[in-house]
Specification:
single chain; alpha/beta; GMP Synthetase, Chain A, domain 3; 4-stranded mixed β-sheet; 11 helices; globular
């Protein structure tokens, strides 16, 4: 009996091996596979326009740079537009390595989940792919190039996926987190907004308009399906700002958080260790300070009392002085004690920003602070009573404590 079982297993192994070397299990030839690094999704009239940025490795002994290609497909559905990319190029669009999706502003004016649902349910793209919102057209971002990286999606990912040591000034969101927010009790999500900045010859930066596409990119019409291709080998002069955050309620954009409010949002929702705080114009000498957060302890406590909700935000920060502008030497600035006036100004600034967040939530209805989810999880019996008007019955207090070495 065991001998028959062993023979059967050996025959199966030989059969599978033959399939692998003869047909490769039907896997598409690597020479005909396009490795998509990013997708840009726009809406034109009633059609979806999907642009795929494809990494084209052409490194040689004399050239270590990778080229990029930008191919666009158009259709009534997202899947159809992606399929047209393959039909127009002759390359099968491989989405398993796509780590970035950019949505045009027209998509945000509708229910963005009509688009994102396809990517959330298909196994072709990973759930950890970062999603961002373009200030105008999504394709224009992929057409640009950074001075540090010819492929814009790679440059953007460096900004969006910062490691410890950088400021927490971006509210990065991936497919899984955005969809989880949409299908939660509050139906609310956030997404970074990408703004283009152009580096001038004088080393200054200014806001870039919709015409800031890399002039070295060239396009070719791809027929009635609306496809076209673009390649570029020269690094551009475009930089990217992702410190503004878009607020979504029910899949539609309802508001924004500016840079200061985005920082405050990250302070109370995440661990902001190694982030910095700017305090300008301190005292009669108008000294400017830069503080580095060494420890961060955010807390949110929701209670119910006398038929109203009470929300208490508390934030404890331990900071050290990184730099300051003064007439004296800054050689030992990191061992200086935190001045009382700097401490008070930092606490007041952060407290006001957190209060702004709560008021924005009340005015937009977007529960990006996850108050409704907390109510459902901690006070299930009271949830039916408060779920429809919890923001109207919400009282709040904000406590911020900034400390430093004595």
């Amino acid at each position: 009996m065991n001998l028959k079982k062993t023979k059967f297993i050996m025959i199966c192994c030989v059969f599978i091996t033959l399939l692998f070397f003869s047909n490769d299990f039907g896997i598409i030839n690597i020479e005909k596979t396009a490795i998509v690094t990013a997708l840009a999704i726009d809406i034109e009239k009633e059609d979806y326009v999907v642009s795929a940025q494809i990494a084209v490795p052409e490194a040689t002994d004399t050239n270590s740079e990778n080229q990029k290609a930008l191919i666009t497909g158009k259709d009534k559905t997202i899947a159809g537009a992606i399929r047209n990319i393959g039909n127009l190029s002759g390359w099968y669009p491989k989405l398993a390595f796509c780590n970035l999706m950019i949505f045009g502003k027209e998509v945000a004016n509708e229910n963005i989940m009509k688009v994102l649902d396809y990517f959330a349910t298909t196994l072709r793209i990973q759930d950890s792919a970062v999603v961002v919102l373009a200030e105008d057209k999504a394709r224009e971002i992929l057409e640009t190039a950074s001075p540090l990286d010819n492929i814009s999606s790679f440059a953007l990912q460096k900004i969006l996926l910062k490691e410890t040591g950088f400021d927490r000034d971006v509210s990065t969101t991936d497919v899984r987190a955005f969809c989880a927010g949409y299908y939660s009790k509050n139906s609310s999500s956030v997404m970074p907004i990408i703004k283009l900045l152009t580096e001038t010859s004088k080393g200054q930066e200014k806001g870039n308009s919709s015409s800031s596409s890399n002039s070295s990119n060239t396009g070719q019409n791809g027929g009635s399906s609306g496809g076209n291709g673009a390649t570029s080998s020269n690094k551009g002069d475009t930089l990217y700002d992702a410190t503004t955050t878009a607020l979504f309620l029910g899949g539609k954009k309802v508001g924004e958080l500016n840079t200061t409010q985005t920082n405050a949002f990250n302070f109370i929702m995440t661990d902001s260790k190694e982030s910095t705080i700017k305090i300008n114009g301190v005292g009669r000498d108008k000294i400017n300070y830069l503080l580095n957060i060494k420890r961060s302890n955010p807390k949110r406590v929701l209670t119910i009392e006398n038929g109203r909700l009470n929300l208490e935000f508390s934030l404890d920060l331990f900071c050290k002085i990184v730099d300051k502008t003064s007439m004296e030497s800054n050689q030992n600035v990191e061992v200086l004690p935190l001045p009382l006036l700097v401490k008070e100004m930092a606490e007041e600034s952060i407290k006001n920003s957190i209060i702004d967040l709560i008021e924005i939530e009340k005015s937009t209805g977007c529960d990006f602070l996850k108050i409704k989810d907390t109510l459902y999880q901690n006070f299930y019996d009271f949830y039916p009573t408060f779920k429809d008007n919890y923001l109207e019955l919400l009282d709040y207090t904000v406590k911020v404590n900034v400390s430093g070495q004595k």
